[in-house]
Amino acid sequence: MRRILVVPIGRVFGPWLERLLQELSDFWRVQVELTRPVPPPAAAFHPRLRKFFAPYLADFLRSLSPEVDFVLGVCGEEVYSPRTPLVFTEVSFSARAALVSARQLQEFLFGPEPESLFVERLRKEAIRALGHLLGLPSCPNPRCVMHPPSSLMELDLKGTDFCPECQTRLRLAQVRRGEVRLIL
Fold first, then answer.
1. Virtual CA dihedral for 60, 122, 78, 81, nearest 10 degrees?
2. Degrees (nearest 5) of the Cα angle 84, 96, 171?
3. pTM, whole model, 2 decimals?
4. pLDDT for 85-114, tens place per residue?
């Protein structure tokens, strides 16, 4: 059975974290564990931007637990990346780790249950990040959870599950890794 370690980085706390863990466990059908919060490493901080370098944080996550399959960081600090002006997630394939920016996903919460919207955003981006770590590419289908959103509105509009093409890609990747058997 695969194991995912969730690491809160910086100011990350609240009942929504337990809800996220349960939803990830139910979705992936794996064991999801939570560690104590860790401070972001000082080496990742850019003093002029007053933000943390997301690729560094994603690589840093693997050093926290080398024995799990994947490490998912949930970061409460502002992050940046040279690849994109808006960072929802950052994936490090070599480290088998991903970072989700809780800080960015907390912007513009609305509706009668803003915490539910926040958890849904976290869930979508955590699933997308872990999907990339499992070999799935970004998807052009705007309703697929693997679609890379360019705004919070796109994120809110996309679905919470894989499209049929991504489901097939994931199943084929699992067959290649020997996790499931193909029965003809």
1. 60
2. 95
3. 0.91
4. 889 999 999 999 999 999 999 988 887 888
